[in-house]
Amino acid sequence: MTGLFGEIFLSALLFGAVTAAIPLLLAGLGEQMSEKAGVLNIGIEGMMLAGAYLGFVGAFYSGSLWLGFLTSAGGGIAVALVMALLCVRIGLNQIVIGIALTLGLEGLTALLHHFQFSRSYPRLPAVDVTVIPLLSDIPVIGPALFRQHLSVYLAVALVFAMGYVYRRTQLGLNLQAAGDKPAALDVAGIDVVRTRTIAVLTTGALAGLGGAFLANVGAGLFIPFITNGAGFLGIVLAMLARGRPVWVLFGALLFGVCLSLTTAMQVAGINIPTDVIQMLPFLAVMIMLVLFGRRASLPAALGIPYERGAR
Amino acid sequence: MSIDTAPSAGATALDATAAVVTRRDIQHRLLMTLGPILAALIIAGSILLAVGVDPLAYYSFVLKRGLLSPLGIQQTLTRMAPLLFLAAGLIVAFRAGMWNLGGDGQFLLGAVTAAASAPALVQVMPAWLALICSFVIAMLVAMIWSLVPALLRAYQGVNEIITTLMMTFLGTSLANVLVKLVFRDPGTTVPQTRTLPVEDRLPRLFDTTITSGLLLGLVAIITVHLVMTRTAFGLKLRIVGANPRAAIHAGLGVPKLTVAVFAISAGLAGLAGAVDILGVQGNVRADWNPAYGLAVIPVVFLARMNGFAAIGFVFLLSVLSIGGESAARRLGVPNHFTLVLVSIVLIVLALAEYLDHRYNQSRRELKR
């Protein structure tokens, strides 16, 4: 117990927090884009699972982590394509289809896992870390933040790339308009359905990547229901971030710390049942919603399918 | 932070009862229900084929075990009891345009409190009174659990999809904590609550193993259906569901109605947990979570939020899950397949409804 707040413990805690935060970050960024464009994507949990499963399969059989990321993005996009066709193109209820997709992929990935891996439970080797010179020598923070897998840095870079897209590009404006006033976008001569489809497919890709990170980098294996609500946490992050990618990053790190505490406290031998600690991130969400829920702003046309000429 | 995504049937529910049901109507509805189910069976079957399982053998096994064997049908009817309560709770919420997705947390907390109170109460009062008290306690606990999302939605406008989902994750963990730390049976090594003796549980129907909870479930869902379609209170809720702004202008106290809807919906989910424990399980083991709540959501959509149709779909789901559990043991196909099947049915049905709507629309335009 003497090492509870020692350097190594804190460093491990932070390292775990970052690893736990990245899937939430990717899911949150993805959901943010959908929501900006006016699509409430409840199917994101299913997209993450598809990405986690296909990412693991890709990485396992090819031996390349990066190929795994590629297949995971493909898996996420495939599920998102169903969502885009049903909810954006023909305007079915987004919540109904989202729940159906999440349930279906929970079942499907668990089923496939059972027939493929349930006897062997294969694992991937531990990932290589990229050490950033100088910065990684800072005590406590250095080993935690600057000795991570390359994909971690890329995910963080994505936050700023998304910020740029939203603020400085035509696409960013189009996305915003598709969520706030789709009719105006249509009048300006830009296809609402196409804009929203781009957003939903991007969400699928990001959610898939998040799932793959969870399985391949975080855990090193795929187990059924591995996401365990990460997609739903992503939805909350997107709602609280009020359209700003940087806030998704902060939120994800906060939840990452909560999740990381779960393992850290067990390692430290603190005698609290895991169930109590597992409640932490969700408790944090509820407290944040109670405190800031009123201030969270959502696009005006969120959840409403766009139909040209409809009143 | 509220979203105007009232369930699509909520808007049409107002005139649904007034429609004159002709024979052709019934035929059409049957076709629109059975067609998609058949299509979904074929799609799901091709998934089975892909993993090397004979779909026909699987389906016939599920049918035999869940429906046609005497033991199977009794288990199926018993399984219906909690599912009917859950479906009743969801019908109230969805018709009022509120997405209570927290059924599992409410269910488990109801189950745990019923499991904790019943064995203690039977020692101080007659069994029938103990059962009633346990039901009431379970209902109240689930109602209180729903208060946070209800108040947030009613007075702060916080989206209830998120809050109920978060509360369900919290509730599942809390139920586990209660089983392991507070209500743990000191007499056993496995973490579980004290077991209610079989003779003190809900009576079984006649000479079968079917629980009388089935009757309670049927009463609950039919009552809910009648209240929602035939009473002023139900009409108020449906107006809130169809158009919350119009409801405010009509002078309805929307925040209070919101809290009421959540309380009823969660209370029924709590009763579902209680009926499963007091009728079938007898205790709650640690980490027990049948996740009925999520599985019932598609069922309620499939039934278009109609109580009577929901009974039929709940029966179907019970057959699938009892047969599926049996198939998991015998054929080695995990029960997760049921989830896949249900979700495919839901998607295909939504698609069929859309196509049907489009077809009718274009025909109407042609006539003009």
Give a brief rundown of this model.
The complex is a heterodimer of chains A (311) and B (368). Chain A is an all-alpha fold.
What does it look like?
The complex is a heterodimer of chains A (311) and B (368). Chain A has a single domain (7-295), classed as ABC transporter involved in vitamin B12 uptake, BtuC (Orthogonal Bundle). Helices cover 71% and strands 1% of the residues of chain A. Chain A has helices at residues 7-36, 44-62, 65-89, 94-117, 141-145, 150-168, 170-180, 182-187, 192-219, 230-240, 245-267, 274-292; strands at 130-131, 147-148. Chain B starts with 7 loop residues before the first helix and ends with a helix. Mean pLDDT of chain B is 86; it is low at 1-18. Chain B is globular and about 75 Å long. In chain B, α4 (70-95) packs antiparallel against α12 (254-281) and α13 (292-302) packs parallel to α15. Chain B has 368 residues and is mainly alpha-helical. Chains A and B meet through α4, α10 and α12 of A and α7, α8, α13 and α15 of B.
**Count of individual beta strands of chain B:** 0
SSE pattern of chain B, N- to C-terminal: HHHHHHHHHHHHHHH
Largest sheet of chain A: 2 strands, antiparallel
Count of helices of chain B? 15
If strands are numbered along the chain, what order do they take across the biggest sheet of chain A? 1-2
Name the largest protein-protein interface in this structure.
A-B, 49 and 52 residues
Strand content of chain A: under 5%
Q: Please give the share of residues in helix of chain B.
A: over 70%
- Work out the radius of gyration of chain A: 20 Å
Protein name (chain B): ABC transporter permease
Keywords (chain B): Cell membrane, Membrane, Transmembrane, Transmembrane helix
Subcellular location (chain B): Cell membrane
Membrane topology (chain B): Multi-pass membrane protein
